[in-house]
Amino acid sequence: MATRRVKVSIDAKKLGMKKLLIIGAGKEQVIAIQKAKYLGYYVICSDFDTKAPGIAFADEFHEVSTHDYEGNLSVAKKGNVDGVMTICSETAVPVSYT
What we know:
20% of the residues lie in helices and 18% in strands. It has helices at 30-38, 69-79; strands spanning 19-23, 42-47, 60-63, 83-85. Strands 3-2-1-4 form a 4-stranded parallel β-sheet, with helices on both faces. The longest helix has 11 residues, at 69-79. The model has no long low-confidence stretch (mean pLDDT 85).
């Protein structure tokens, strides 16, 4: 019998969960996604690859390239995230304007 993963929409903030945006959902980011989940974070991932392996572990996914600063900023703002990170990305991710 096949299993199907169903996403349930929850209000993480009402549950007292911190929200973390992890830029990238590739195999390199899977361990970070899993660790953040283990630590109790509501994990939002962004990646251009809709078949990235990290998507299966995230609470929420957005199809946004790691190169798309404005797109990731929009995801962070709409998601009201508490933090943003990436790990082992092949792209330097800008985190602020000066």
